[in-house]
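Blinded run. Sample ID left blank on purpose so nobody reads anything into the name before looking at the predicted structure. Input follows.
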Amino acid sequence: MFHRAVALIGLWLAVSVLPATPVHAGSSGNANATESSAFLPVGKATVPPPGFDGVCDRYAWACGRKAGVLAVGIDMLALAARINRAVNETVHQLSDYAQYGRNEYWELPTQRGGDCEDLALLKKFRLISAGVPADRLLMATVLDRQQRPHAVLVVRSQDGDFVLDSAGDRILNWRDTGYSFLRMQRPDAPSRWNAVLAGGLFPIDPSL
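Blinded prediction complete.
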């Protein structure tokens, strides 16, 4: 992944010249600030994270907008929590360098294991397979609370953006993670990425 807070600050300066636009499900232009802040603000287009190249070619589902249909009575966030926990418990965490001899390579976990983005990809695949619409499942890159590079899966519900994380089994609204969100797949075109720059080291309110 990209490196350290200095890269974050440079990205912030490059992107913040344009206003961020909240893009979320089931919202209107009159949504109040509290409601809007439950969703990640989406800024202008940016380059994909290192190691993401080739993911869309290998896995069409990872970058598609397939319209899924959940079975009646299935709660999307409860399902997401179960899948998050199951993947975290069954996949051994192993760095890309240990497995592939390179710093970054986004891939589904192997029998040996996978790192944070690999686990996030597997969670996305399982949720799509369970009927969750693909455009509700967005890969994102962050700095964690120790300002270390990290990747997570964002589940976009009507109540806000919730984070599936290899670092913990609870799913949290993005505001409650303490993470600095850097970029995320674009909801209406997941093969592309947009800057986020919110939470953690950044103000939650994109107007600040």
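Unblinding after everyone has recorded impressions. The CA atoms of residues 20 and 43 lie 4 Å apart.
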